[in-house]
Amino acid sequence: MEFKLPDLGEGITEGEILKLMTKEGDQIKEDQPIVEVMTDKVNVQIPSPRTGKVAKILVKEGDVAKVGQTIMVIDEGGSGPPAPVSTPTSPQPVTASAQVVQVQSPAPSAGVLATPATRRLARELGVDMGKIRGTGPQGRVTDEDVKRSASGSGTSAVAAQAVQTQPSRGAPKEEVVPLRGLRRTIAERMAKSLRTTAQVTHVDEADMTELVLLREAFKGSAEKRGVRLTYLPFIIKALVPALKEFPYVNSTLDEQAGNIILKRYYNMGIATDTDQGLVVPVVKDVDRKDIFEIAGEIEKLSQKARSAQLTLDEVHGSTFTITNVGAIGGLFATPIINVPEVAILGLHKIAKRPVVRDGKIEVRDTTYLSLSFDHRVFDGAYAARFTSRVVETIQDTKKLLSEVL
Fold first, then answer.
1. How far apart are CA 373 and CA 391, in angstroms?
2. Which residues contact 92 (CB under 8 A, 6 or more apart)?
3. Could you tell me which of 335, 304, 337 has the C-alpha nearest to residue 320?
4. For residues 72 and 56, is the Cβ–Cβ distance under 8 A?
5. Do 126 and 201 share a structural domain?
6. Structural domain of 398
7. What letter would DSSP give residue 375?
8. Rounded CA gap, 250 and 248, in Å?
9. Residue-wise pLDDT tens digits, 243-287
10. Does residue 314 belong to any structural domain of this protein?
11. Does 80 map to a domain?
12. Is 217 in the same domain as 139?
């Protein structure tokens, strides 16, 4: 039978082959995971729909396969040409970096206990896992073990490729790093966003002094609930009335039909920095949740993002995205829209700055908000009014209190 890449839902049309979990000639059983695919920032292990022998593998790791494309042929032991199958057993989103597997292969690392993500890291750094002593539970090799081995063994396999084009003396001056996995997905999405939208960025300043005090007042209540309260839930709640008042900011553009689709629900994409790259988990229905519920979900989703445990549902359905780089620093930036959305808000460092109030200079906690938007959907004046509404709510304690609880 022909084993095809199944329809994974959520409008996904292709996936990158991250790991082939079997090889030609292997005997496999029904429901045995045989290939790991990355689809729109989530890793999925796809099981075999049949028991048999792997007759031929038609893809290699790093290839991008289309839904419906034959990726391998499985011999079920019968005669005649293999019968095609289009929908194998439903794949399950998995934690690639958290699922411990024993890889059966003739390589020296066959008996090493490690996750698929750790093995992938070892391949990228040119580290022989068979020579690593694992420090994890039951002797599992961790990412840190691999990195330590790479730093102690000199150049990686990738760097070794670059050495061939450099003089033999001294360290290589270039390193070739394959654009794969999440980094390739990010590259493609960012390029598509800039290529298909008319992006403009509007920047405004917000006095955060009252919000800083409000957060301090609520931190104790949050701790009793086991929640770490940041400024982000307050900003999210300040966004809700603005998104309701300016619905075009919370919309998508259907170019084929020539329609702007106004969303009457409010799902916040939270751009999250991980070791693998930028991931955007989604907090659903933020207008119906208080700051403690939102804070708890952000914390849970951020942890899942950093350990590659997010499901497809947890990264889809956002109507507006926030990217927060305040903890890192910088004045302000121009974020790139998370298509198919039409706007994204950048949050930046809160710092004490001199501010003129009632003709006097005072030191206040301020920050800059940068709204990137698709000028095809609404104009600069609309964007400015929307941002001003957000700033107004942030700076007015009474208005903000009416939203956060």
1. 17
2. 44, 45
3. 337
4. yes
5. no
6. 184-404
7. T
8. 5
9. 999 999 999 999 999 999 999 999 999 999 988 788 999 999 999
10. yes
11. no
12. no
